[in-house]
Amino acid sequence: MISPGSALLSPRGKVLESGMPRFFRRLREGVFDEADVERRAKELADFVETARARYGLEAPVAVGYSNGANIAAAMMLLRPQVLAGAVLLRAMVPLAHPPKADLAHRPVLISSGSRDPIIPASNSTELAALLASAGANVRHSIMPAGHQLAQADVAIAKQWMIGSNFSPAAAPLSG
């Protein structure tokens, strides 16, 4: 919906929580197993690089919601060369002490919910500041919503993709 005509690479998380696939383990809601976040982010980055080589893809734009957004943010911090940019829907800071990343001019859209019961507004603002301090061009939109996605998220992400001049060859990496 946000980038019609683009190639799509859509991995699924390998961690099961209550029968649902996730990209990494949580210790409890809002508290991540950071060693697992780091290991899984590097594993996903390896997968993306292999898929890029195999299918002749440009660096993808990650599009993730919640756990998928958090793994994409972790990838940007741990392996910044893998992604061309990111749309992070309902994301939070994935690592308490991330390494210094070089995200020079990488476009990032963060869409947060002002009434999100899972992610405090200060956390998504901290993520935006963290990525910006690494050099990313961050746009942080705060929607009048909770943790669920709204049609406005889709509209903002679609407009952001167009405005960021990503070609259809820059396949969204959805999670």
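Next protein, fold it too.
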Amino acid sequence: MNPVIQLNCVSKRFGKVQALDDVTLQIQPGTVCAVLGANGAGKSTAIRLLLGFESPDRGGIEVLGMNPHTHALEIRSRVGYVSDAPPLYEWMTVQEIGWFAAGFYPTGYQAEYDKLTKRFDLDPSQKIKGLSKGTRAKVALSLAMAHRPPLLIMDEPTSGLDPLVRREFLESMIDVAAEGRSVLLSSHQVGEVERVADDVIVLMNGKVIAHERLEDLKQSVTEVALSLPTVNTSPPAIPGNAVAHVAYGHEHVWLVRDLDAGRLADLCRAQELPQAIVRKPSLEEILLTLLRQNRNQHAAVMATPAALMAAKSTAHGQK
């Protein structure tokens, strides 16, 4: 089965900012794929490239087997797209905006839109300008789903919504995937996303640092917490593949794949260290540890003499 989304060595720069850096990934049909990362990680840039709003500097992209650079309009007609601030005609009613959108799609759109708005408890006669943010989001989702697209792309769609609306919004994604269609979901609501996602992509500084089945990620990663005697005590080498390490003074936390818990216990005894606390972290805890490591590494780089000299040179040139 062909991927619904495919990126091959894709890079995109805006001035001095490397938004995407050699990104390669595939998203298979019938999955809910969550894209996670801090602000500026490259999530929205990737979505704009998929929809043909921007072109990559390098690399190839396919969406539903088409190139967004040459088939942008066809892709947008077949993909459902919901942003965090969907543009809606304020003077229309809920029913009128569905009737208007139906003119751009095949027969059946209006009937499906009416079914969706009823499911979301929307009042057909209410003006868009009088809707709350959560209700507007439901209208936008109804518009995006009414042509039953094989791919639904959502960029922070639940930002600012109350918990109940957010839950309803995300749970509707499960129904989409159950019908063999796909969802690409960019969100900061990690705890909610964890309930509905099949796959997860973690972007940092424009690079993919993780892309795998959510359950595989959670099962393979173990959190190790260890309290060292002093802040100057060197941390031990953790027996396993450490994918992240963050220090909070003398407290250290690792994310480890393939941890050998027996060897870790022996190591702590041999070095007269307290026994480590070992547990399975949530997706949100995994992401936070990765983000903290990334922030610490960035701060360390910026504190090097070369970086400080470059910053001084830039500041002097701007005077």
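About the second fold: The two ends are 57 Å apart (CA to CA).
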